[in-house]
Amino acid sequence: MSIKPAPGLPFMKMHGLGNDFVVLDLRGGGTPPAAEVIARIGDRNRGVGFDQLATIQTDGDADVRLRFWNADGSVSAACGNATRCIARFVMDQTGRDRLSLRTDHAILLAEDAGGGLTRVNMGPPVLDWRAIPLAQDVDIDHLPIEGDPAATGMGNPHVTFFVDDAASVDLASFGPAMEHHPLYPQRTNVEVVQILSRDEVLLRIWERGAGPTLASGSCSCAAAVAAARRGLTGRRVKVNVPGGVLMIDWRDDGVWMEGPTAHVFTGTLTPEWLAS
Question: Residue 78: pLDDT above 80?
Fold first, then answer.
């Protein structure tokens, strides 16, 4: 008689330009793992490894409900590339070319952009200091921080620095220092932007709770909004990140982000590992 092993936790590994995710489809039931388990899954040596973990659940008003966690187990209200990856997965499942996805930030709209690309409206940028949030009332376009950065909210907080040479910035030391700057009570994502032209920028990224990443949708959106508000670019820009290219278009109805996605593999976390 064969013994059927107890089921573990199924997951999908996805990425958008190398910004990688573990995705748990909980539409059939179940609850998200505890924060300490999420952090263990995020361990690239002893777990699976990811920049963010996302869950898919049902929702009464949107097609699906998404929630996000960083690699350290902390919660994030937004994750643009994961939203695009999951939107593509659900569109492929259902045969639809448009979806609504509820996040902790807002209900976001996604659509098939053709050519294997997926486009998501990340919503209007948050430009009120209280909602970003910042610790005090300051000029968000010129923060009182060395380097004259700008602040933007995209459902999560951002600080954007404009530099002449993004490659010369020591992100390993600069990123953590800015992530924990006292002006940001919930920590912040950090962007280092080099302006290439009126419609193209180069972006390096330090993500809150994750560290350096090859891409970030919300960081790309925040950088594009900050550059446009400074008058350095127009509202539609090509954003070059280490993992590839995202197109960001700040329209009247929100900040649209377009790019490729990949569903890499599907696996199962064993009950033994989850219980260890």
Answer: yes
Q: The pTM is what?
A: 0.93
The candidate with the shortest Cα–Cα distance to 181, out of 250, 134, 112, 242, is 134
Report the distance separating Cα 212 and Cα 189, nearest Å.
Answer: 10
* CB 13, CB 265: distance < 8 Å: yes
Q: How far apart are CA 40 and CA 71, in angstroms?
A: 8
Give the list of residues 6+ apart from residue 111 with CB closer than 8 angstroms, or none.
97, 98, 99, 118, 119, 120
Q: How many residues does the chain have?
A: 276
HSE at residue 36, side-chain half, CA atoms within 13 A, is: 3
Tell me whether residue 117 is exposed, middle or buried, using C-beta atoms within 10 angstroms of its C-beta: 0 to 12, 13 to 18, 19 or more: middle
Per-residue pLDDT of 171-199, as tens digits, reads 999 999 999 999 999 999 999 999 999 99
Asked whether residue 4 carries a pLDDT value surpassing 90, the answer given is no
